[in-house]
Amino acid sequence: MRDSAAAAAAAARPGAAARPGAAARPGAAAAGAGWCGWCGLRVLLVDGSSTIAPDTPASQRAFGQPSNQKAGCGLPVPKVLALFDAFTGMVLEALCLPLCTHEQSGVWRLHPALGPGDLLVGDRGFCSYVHLAMLHARGVFGLFRMHQRQIVDFRPGRRPRRKGERGRPRSRVVRRLGRHDQVVAWPRPGRRPKWMAMLAAQFESLPAELHVRELRYHLKGRGRRTRVVTIATTLLDPALYPAEKVAELYGVRWSAETHFAELKTTLRMRRVKSQTPDGVRKELAVYCLVYNLVRAVMARAAARQGTTPDRVSFTDALRWLLCAAAPGQDVAALVINPRREGRHEPRVIKNLRDNYRKMTLPRAQMRRRLDLAKR
């Protein structure tokens, strides 16, 4: 998928100049920094989602089903972990994992697609000392929402937690940058995470301390569930990376949710049809290829129409590909969506198609129980 993303992006922007060293990095052609740099950095988004596969024994063993469903009453649910370019929205790399796999234990497999000068943005599921230190060793910056179990204290003069204490942060203050902005030293955890069993040597090579910038800001937009957001990042220089720009960049992370919505709803990846685990992985790869093709059309249309790719309608680009595209024909003028800052939408659905009773026993047992088979 990485090479396909690079080819699609190259076709979308002929003559675009890559920064020095970009060609040697996997996936760099898919998102040249000269095209999408943020403070001189290439920004990538990481997030996870899931899909539904047919109920076959092989897929059940490979992916598993939700733990709250009884055996024989659920469907296999593959987890998809994807790396998106923040500017073009293209998929640079994607992994298909078992459902009960924490994102932290799979994200390191995406690290080969990153290189020095990149910035990885993700939610709190990716925030930990180990992940930030692994990125730092590659020369990659990280910016994540602070994990809910991490204690953060911005009080001046506070001390780190002593052995046996609770309720205090383990970090040591290095310097204060503002009222809710500070650089601290995170200590390496005493125990290696279970998911690093195959990476024991790498864990031992991580530094004893890692300097991390802790930043907190308040959301004022209406309809938001979160009013206070705390960020952990290795962007330490407040002159190069002001707090306002860092907070604004983290808001871009939500576009990963839109990308998955386009994959799962518009392209109908919500439910795949392949009967085998390998078939599921291939089908998901094809979905990503088609998605990148649409994104390449959006990027080309954005260049012609003098806007950014995120403003071009994904649905209109897909319709043009299906109904109007011809060999050798350039991209037509596509619908440009206006910016709707602070838009609020209630978290409700209108479709009532899922009102049927849910299966609580395997189908064979329900056939023998006529009282259960009645609606």
Structure report:
The protein is of the alpha+beta class. It is 29% helix and 18% strand. The chain contains eleven helices and ten strands. Strands 1, 2, 3, 4, 5, 6, 7, 8, 9 and 10 form a ten-stranded mixed β-sheet that branches. A hairpin with a 5-residue loop joins strand 3 and strand 4. Helix 1 (2-12) runs parallel beside helix 8 and helix 8 (277-305) packs across helix 9 (314-323). The two termini are 45 Å apart. The model is unreliable at 1-36 (pLDDT under 50).
* Count, helices: 11
Helix content: 25-40%
Runs with pLDDT <50, length 5+?
1-36
Strand composition percent: 15-25%
Biggest pleated-sheet summary: 10 strands, mixed
Q: Rough shape? A: globular
Structural class: alpha+beta
- Helix-strand sequence: HHEEHEEEHEEEHEEHHHHHH
Number of strands: 10
- Average pLDDT: 85
Question: What's the N-to-C terminus distance?
Answer: 45 Å
- Computed over alpha carbons, the radius of gyration is 23 Å
Keywords, please?
alpha+beta, ten-stranded mixed β-sheet
Layout of helices and strands, plus pairs?
Layout (H helix, E strand, L loop, with lengths): L1 H11 L20 H4 E2 L2 E10 L6 H7 L15 E7 L5 E7 L20 E5 L6 H9 L3 E5 L26 E7 L2 E7 L12 H6 L3 E10 L9 E6 L9 H10 L2 H12 L10 H29 L8 H10 L39 H6 L1 H4 L2
Parallel strand pairs: 2-5, 5-6
Antiparallel strand pairs: 1-2, 2-3, 3-4, 6-10, 7-8, 8-9, 9-10
Helix pairs in contact: 1-8, 8-9
